[in-house]
Amino acid sequence: MQKAVLETLQAMRQKSPLVQCITNLVVMQVNANVLLAAGASPLMAHAQEELEDLVKIINALVLNIGTLDKHTIASMNVAGDFANKYKKPVVLDPVGAGASRLRTETALSILRTVKPCIVRGNGSEIMALAGELGENKGVDSTKGSLEVKEQAKRLARNFQTVVSVSGEVDMITDGTQFAYVQGGDPLMTLVTGIGCSATAVTGACMAVAKTPFIGAVSAMALFAGAGEKAGKKCQGPGSFLPCFIDELYSADYADAAKRVTME
């Protein structure tokens, strides 16, 4: 797996995949800057009138339900339909699933109809989608990644997808195999947009990886290394984000790959 991660991260930098993000308004600029620093190309567009033209040219589609309204939901469904039509891979970030009925039902609907290749979220979100009550605090998680191992496995199998769960140790499963990623820094939870950016970069890695599982693992490995190094250089959450973006830009892919272990 470590060799596959290294190759995927190198390919992302070389090929600069175009990633369309229909994402929440809070994190749009952060997502775009993180994608650029990681070596990908961001596209932030959601107008239904242009979605077919855009989906034709992208390499991956990321759907993030952070700031939902009826227009955003409609755009996600339309984009998802076109992604299926043109065989473009999709990543879903079910932000706040379990916190409200709208969020949970929207995420489940996308899982059923769009059939994303990867679902990336925190422990509470994954637990909610797997059919159990996640103890969300707003859109934040109160469940660690390793606490929801069985729920992640069940979700992956039920929807034939890869589930990537962020936490102190990130866990990724396709329902059969499990990967674990060590690294990061506690400050990552204090900066808005880091988790959503991990989903965006997951889309970029998925676009060039041999499998969605490898793509999901590669993105979390890259973030773990950059987050750990940024945490050692910054003074607090205010300076963490620019340090983190710089670390993504100059990332040591070999170091990122070494952070991955398989069960």
UniProtKB/TrEMBL annotation:
Pathway: Cofactor biosynthesis; thiamine diphosphate biosynthesis; 4-methyl-5-(2-phosphoethyl)-thiazole from 5-(2-hydroxyethyl)-4-methylthiazole: step 1/1. Its cofactor is Mg(2+). It catalyses: 5-(2-hydroxyethyl)-4-methylthiazole + ATP = 4-methyl-5-(2-phosphooxyethyl)-thiazole + ADP + H(+). It comes from the Bacteria. Keywords: ATP-binding, Kinase, Magnesium, Metal-binding, Nucleotide-binding, Thiamine biosynthesis, Transferase. ATP binds at R120, S166. Substrate binds at M44, G193. Its EC number is 2.7.1.50. One of its GO terms (molecular function) is hydroxyethylthiazole kinase activity. Catalyzes the phosphorylation of the hydroxyl group of 4-methyl-5-beta-hydroxyethylthiazole (THZ). Belongs to the Thz kinase family. This is Hydroxyethylthiazole kinase. The gene is thiM.
